[in-house]
Amino acid sequence: MSQVVMYTTAICPYCVNAKRLLDAKGVAVKEMRVDREPHLRQKMMADSGRHTVPQIWIGNRHVGGFTDLWALDKRGELDALLAAE
User: Fold this and answer.
1) Which residues does the UniProt record annotate as the domain Glutaredoxin (predicted)?
2) Mean pLDDT, contiguous 10-residue spans, the chain (85 residues)
3) Predicted pLDDT at 2
4) Which end of the chain is least crowded, N or C, by CB within 10 Å?
5) CA distance linking residue 31 with residue 54, whole number of Å
């Protein structure tokens, strides 16, 4: 299973929804809290080109935010992406 990395904050409802979706699929998420470690936001922005959370990577692929993750799931593409090594 691919590693999932998600940049989050404590008060982000989209982060909560993304974690719930991945949890329902039995996926462990490596959470990077940009509100606790501000230097991580700079890395997230440099790597993704975006400044909002969540920002989600599955393996080496930048998926985007929650709505991008949700759209992948609705198209039936998320499970295969998560299963890839």
Assistant:
1) 4-63
2) 93 97 96 96 96 96 98 97 86
3) 85
4) C
5) 10
CB 55 within 8 A of CB 7: yes
Token look-up 């198209």 returns 75
To which residue do tokens 């329902």 refer? 24
Angle, helix 13-24 to helix 66-74, in steps of 10 degrees: 30
CB neighbour class for 15 (10 Å; exposed up to 12, middle 13-18, buried from 19): buried
Asked whether the beta carbons of 59 and 74 are under 8 A apart, the reply is no
Per-residue confidence (pLDDT) for residue 1, from 0 to 100: 75
Identify the DSSP state of 51: -
Structure-block tokens of residue 23: 């949890």
